[in-house]
Design goal:
alpha+beta, 5 strands, globular, binds adenosine monophosphate, HIT-like_sf
Length: 117
């Protein structure tokens, strides 16, 4: 059984956050430390620690991450100019919270995709 992270508390609305969307599969909220003008996290309600742990049964929730990302990008007014969706995995990916999450970042030019700094 994977260990809960702070994101489980956000899903259960036990700690304050700017909640933007929630349904039976996913939850979306603003990142507490935004790396761009718009920085939203979209997460499955089920605790899946890393992309390595995704199972076939999770495909509906994984698809929902994308449809919610698309809808929120439109709501934020960043869809036309564009944005980036990022999911970090484990140490080399720079993952810090072990409950998978899709970063939706945009609202300004984002530069090159990868930085080694
Ligand atoms: P990652 O490095 O991909 O694991 O990203 C974790 C993200 O979670 C970072 O961008 C953090 O700023 C964000 N984060 C951590 N705690 C919170 C919180 N309580 N509310 C919102 N975002 C958070």
């Amino acid at each position: 059984m994977a260990e809960e992270t702070i994101f489980s508390k956000i899903i259960r609305q036990e700690i304050p956050t700017e909640l933007l969307y929630q349904d039976e599969l996913v939850t979306a909220f603003r990142d507490i430390s935004p790396q761009a003008n718009t920085h939203i996290l979209i997460i499955p309600n089920k605790l899946i620690p890393t992309v390595n742990d995704i199972e076939a049964d999770d495909e509906l929730a994984m698809g929902r991450l994308f449809t919610v990302a698309k809808t929120l990008a439109a709501q934020e007014g960043i869809a036309e100019d564009g944005f980036r969706l990022i999911m970090n995995c484990n140490r080399h990916g720079g993952q810090e919270v072990y409950h998978i999450h899709m970063h939706l970042v945009g609202g300004e030019p984002l530069g090159k995709m990868l930085s080694k700094s």
